[in-house]
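Record type: monomer structure entry
Structure origin: computed from sequence
Chain ID: A
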Amino acid sequence: MAKDKIQENTQENPDEDMSVEEAFASLRELIAHMEQEGISLEDSFADYEKGVRLLKLCNDKIDRVEKKVQKMNAEWSLNDFE
C-alpha cells in the first residue's frame, strides 16, 4: 500500500525531475496563459496550483545547492586559498 502512495505522489508531481531553468520557463508560460483574456477561473486556478508547485521545486533545489556551498565553504575555509 505504501508503494501505491509513492507512485501516486510521483504521478501527481511529474515536474520533480525538471531543472530549475525548465521550471522557470514553465512558470513564464503559466503566467502568459493566466494573463490571456477569457481564461476560466478553473484554468486560472489550475495554473496557479502548478505554479506554486514549480516555485516550491525551485526553492527546494536552490536551497539544496546553497547548503552544499555552505558545507564546502565550511570544509574548505576560504582563508586556505590566500
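Annotation 1: The chain has three helices and no strands.
Annotation 2: Residues 1-11 have pLDDT under 50 and may be disordered.
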